[in-house]
Transcriptional regulator with XRE-family HTH domain (Actinoplanes digitatis), 393 residues
Amino acid sequence: MSDDVRIGQRIRRYRRSRGLSLDQAAGLAGISKPYLSRLERGERSLNSRALLNRISSALQVPVPDLTDQPYVPRGRAAADLRPGVTETRLALLDPSGPPRSEAEIASGVDGLDLLMNSSDPVGQARVVPDLLRWTQQSALMLGTPAAYQRVVVAAYAAVFMMRNLGEYDLAWMAAERMRAAAEHTVDPATLGFAAYAQAHALVGAGALRRARAAAYAMAQAMPVTDREGLAARGSCLLVAASTSAKLGDIDGARELVAEAGRLAERLDGPTLIARHTSFATWNVIMHRVAIEVEGGDPAAAVDAAYPLCQRPVPNRERMSYLWVDVGRAFEQLDRRPEAIEAFRRAERAAPLRVRLSPVVSRCVSELLDKSHRRAGGADLRGLAERCGVLGHS
């Protein structure tokens, strides 16, 4: 059974449980009754996140419940990652334990940006929970802004680690811990950093409108009196832009990305916030690519991505996101070989993240269907098997 059929079955089940007819649900989602019927039968793919979000809103069901995301890690990956989830939960609920020296804590926190950009979720699962626990212990003992700043960075890493693993409740808990620590720093830019993380946690859980409102409000309130404030405001604008695109407001998303781009041009060198959020001109370009894919203009997406495809940035995690969006664009253009190669490049950049991605799995499944599966070629079949799609046919 394909992913399209599974998602269609869930849509039908939730629609009926809500007592909605096809006409009513289609009207609430802003689509035609025949189109919704084809979606429910698995005859059409839900490759548009904006459409998926409209259906989610119409049925009052979180997106993860419709897509059954994330795919569960299999084999060794599951064994290596689960302890990290358990330890992160414990670090958030009870950070007590043997203390560590300030030098050891500071050294670990200083290297978190490189670890989080390395596309090594297993390594992250081994390091982040301990740092989250130790930084909280240190902040409670010292009570200094610097100590709470380290909690902010450790909690930020936990937000994204948990979000990427589909542990959305834990991602939100970590974001709340980050916000509370940011308030102790009495620094507007750090509060903006926390708002950026909270918005991402909300997006993962499907609360898109709240995420966009929070990120946009913080971007507007953020003073740009120093470089950290500039990076915080730009980062919030980017998450507001990507969320707007997922909600179907493509023009609004483009305006927000353009504003973020102007701020990125003013940022002369890295800041703590920019290091962790990757706020820079190249990341603005990546958001522009994603928005054009979401807006149904794949040619514009490919054109926008060209400079980064020719000269990739040294951030494996972010490059994997770019290659996924490029793959989606090529799929929309019906350029199958380029789409497969883009997804394979995404996988090489971040193997586990890409293999667990519901978006990639749906696209690969669609490519298989178009290729009549057995004629899909070794590269596509291998990718499909690693994504857990081949066995669903």
